[in-house]
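*Target chain*
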Amino acid sequence: MKSYSFIYRNGLSIVLLLLMLVCWGGQFLTGWHTLNTELTENGKPVINMTRYLSSGHFIQATFENWESEFLQMMLYVLLTVSLRQKGSSESKSLEGKEDVDRVPMAHKNAPWPVKKGGLVLTIYKNSLSIAFGILFLTSFILHFYGSLNEYNSEQVMKNKPSITWVAYLQNSRFWFESLQNWQSEFLAVASLVILSIWLRQKGSPESKPVDMPHQENA
């Protein structure tokens, strides 16, 4: 078997993570400047980078977006198990069973949960959606925590009383922050599912072969 370098074997994840870190760093710096501008305009002392890192402003902005991404991926993984879209590269075929549907069989190179069987195998068979579900719930909680802290900081700045987490859970602001991101994520996935019926990108596994008929699934 031909030997490939670590970067070649993992290039996709490396580039995506680097892009994420660059954008996250840009978010941090611009968010820090934005908050300090608001503090200055309200006659409050500015904060340093270390303090901004633990501020509600930064935490809310970060996990508000992560939350919607993990929700999108969890539901997409689950919905593609049973739902179909004729002609889409993102959908299973309308008829017949595919490799992902077959009963897992223990063999020499199978992952250890397959060899173990029982409850371990049951969890492993659903581990991708479970992992995304845990990441979504974690991000949702941290988004709520950061959003509540940011809201109460604004209340203090306006010389108004802060509120409890129970009261904030019923506040439209938190749900507005979540829903505006959720809808955009579902639109993005729907666009990929639908556009891949007619449009192509040569060489991408997210696209059907260029010469494949529109109404066939990849």
User: Anything to note?
Assistant: The chain is about 65% helix and 0% strand.
